UniProtKB/TrEMBL annotation:
Renumbered residue ranges of the record's region Disordered: 1-35
Keyword Endoplasmic reticulum attributed: no
Key words, A-Z: DNA-binding, Nucleus, Transcription, Transcription regulation
Subcellular location(s) of the protein: Nucleus
Biased composition (Basic and acidic residues): 12-35
BHLH domain residues: 20-71
Name listed for the protein in its UniProt record: BHLH domain-containing protein
UniProt keyword DNA-binding, yes or no: yes
A Pfam family per the record: HLH
GO cellular component: nucleus
GO molecular function: DNA-binding transcription factor activity, RNA polymerase II-specific; protein dimerization activity; RNA polymerase II cis-regulatory region sequence-specific DNA binding
Amino acid sequence: MPASQSPTNPADRPRLSDAQKKENHIRSEQKRREAIREGFDRLASIVPGMEGQGRSEAVVLEATVKYLREQIVERNRIIADAQARGVDTTGWELPDHTLSACEAQLKRAQEEEQQNGSRPKD
């Protein structure tokens, strides 16, 4: 069967109305927001001190960056201790950009929250 006669050919399907397009967009946006919410909920469940708190995304990111910093400091301490004991720690180091990427994400989230917080409500 030629592609032009295929029932899945986009030209053969009816066009969506503006209302249908709008509804599809709304559903897609709701799914996107839910995925983000679930991601922040997962972070909040992992990061100590975030359980059961009302929180903004910026607060969760800030706590996550703080927690990661603490973990990196502890990891570096363990590596230094291992090296002092003569253990070969080649390949144990984190890439330099790891923490700076977390800090950049935190800064963007804080700036966005400040912009959203200062915007007048409709």
